[in-house]
Amino acid sequence: MRYLTAGESHGKQLTTIIEGIPSNMQIVKEDINASLLRRQKGHGRGKRMQIEKDLVEITSGIRHGYTIGSPISLVIHNDDFKHWLDVMGEDPIEEDTKIRRTVSRPRPGHADLNGALKYGHRDMRNVLERSSARETAARVAAGAVAKTMLKQLGIEVTAYVKEIAGIRASEDSSLSIEDRKMIAEESPVRTLDKSVEKSMMDAIDKAKKDGDSIGGVVEVYVEGMPAGVGSYVHYDRKLDSRIAGSVISINAFKGVEFGIGFEAARKNGSQVHDEIAWNEEDGYYRKTNRLGGFEGGMTTGMPIVVKGVMKPIPTLYKPLQSIDIETKEPFNASVERSDSCAVPAASVVMEHVVAFELARAITEQFPSDQFPTLQKAVADYREEIRCF
Ligand SMILES: Cc1cc2nc3c(=O)[nH]c(=O)nc-3n(C[C@H](O)[C@H](O)[C@H](O)COP(=O)(O)O)c2cc1C
């Protein structure tokens, strides 16, 4: 399984092409639209999310509610494109119009300057249009297909916000995955801890008022992954490493933790490792889940618990200094339309990015040309390892 995305933030559309989804798997566009809608919500999102109402158009790979084994292509139209026809059109334009519209002022914290240097763009719009987090809508679409597959294999994935601007949600490990989903969905900041919800929202409002931005920590929680998915034999087959890479590839994500994560550095081994137990019904399990569902690059069968750290959004109404690449003069970085905090939305992105890696690992490990065969293979494997 793999996917590619294409499209600029203010271009005509975003396109996702997914290869490797088994044939004969049930899927409808509502499965994808529900995910896209969740990405657009959250306290602190800016005007762009009011303009775009993301809905998917399926242009290949699905017939009559089932996958057919060929590449699945998904299109999300940018409603805003109609206002950007002359800026983003593909036809040549007059040289002086081009010069007038050139973006020569790189914004700190964005891809603008490095991308311009790499691709030789004197107009940095060529960089910012593609490096924008608008692309995460296309990634959520791919992840929604993966999530649909996982669900039919008995694997559930969800995500919520653990921390915004230093305000931390408390742990409640007794919550079921269904509760986690429901509570997060009802919260404007996707937190499971009602007692900090208001403070998080206040922090977002304050950042907005101050012309600043804030970041946070999000958690993805997965139940139902069988033990032994991934591999210990090569670095690029370790599933935790693939997940970590895919999380860091999300715009503005700067760190990843599994289970107790960085806290492990401060504890003794006896307080970190999870003791192994067995019973007839569940097979092997761990008495605790401090390692967050991974040992040796493979799943343990315990819930996967992975956190991602999002930096504060780099576009600030309070300007930061930068250098104009035409004049080499300093200037105060100007503001494009921006969110003040996108942590709740980013949790939905991370959920989908992780889901894609899980589904990919499953299709590599089990026969996956046809979905019913895959379903049977996963069910047989679960039974096999229970009494192993
Ligand atoms: C869901 C989401 C929404 C984002 N919205 C904005 C935004 O409105 N303004 C902004 O400056 N950055 C936003 N970002 C972050 C930037 O896209 C990101 O910081 C930038 O592309 C540079 O990449 P890097 O931070 O990974 O180095 C958003 C990120 C995510 C995940």
Detailed description of the structure:
The protein is α+β, with helices and mostly antiparallel strands and 388 residues long. It is 35% helix and 20% strand. The protein is built from twelve helices and 17 strands. It has helices spanning 29-40, 48-51, 85-88, 95-101, 112-119, 125-131, 136-152, 177-186, 194-209, 239-248, 343-365, 371-386; strands spanning 2-6, 13-19, 56-60, 62-63, 66-67, 72-77, 156-164, 167-168, 216-223, 253-258, 276-279, 283-286, 294-295, 298-299, 304-310, 321-323, 330-332. α1 (29-40) packs antiparallel against α11, α7 crosses α11 (343-365) and α10 (239-248) runs antiparallel to α11. The longest helix has 23 residues, at 343-365. The two termini are 29 Å apart. Flavin mononucleotide (FMN) binds at residues 46, 109-111, 131-133, 136, 250-252, 311, 313-315, 338-339, 342, 345-346, 349. Flavin mononucleotide is lined by residues 46, 109-111, 131-133, 136, 250-252, 311, 313-315, 338-339, 342, 345-346, 349.
Distance between the termini: 29 Å
Which stretches are poorly predicted, pLDDT < 50 over at least 5 residues?
A: none
Q: Could you estimate the helical fraction of the residues in percent?
A: 25-40%
**Treating each run of at least 4 consecutive H or I residues as one helix, how many helices?**
12
N-to-C order of helices and strands:
EEHHEEEEHHHHHEEHHEHEEEEEEEEHH
Mean pLDDT: 95
What percent strand? 15-25%
The largest sheet, given as strand count, sense and whether it forms a barrel, is:
5 strands, antiparallel
Strand order of the largest sheet: 8-7-9-15-10
- Morphology: globular
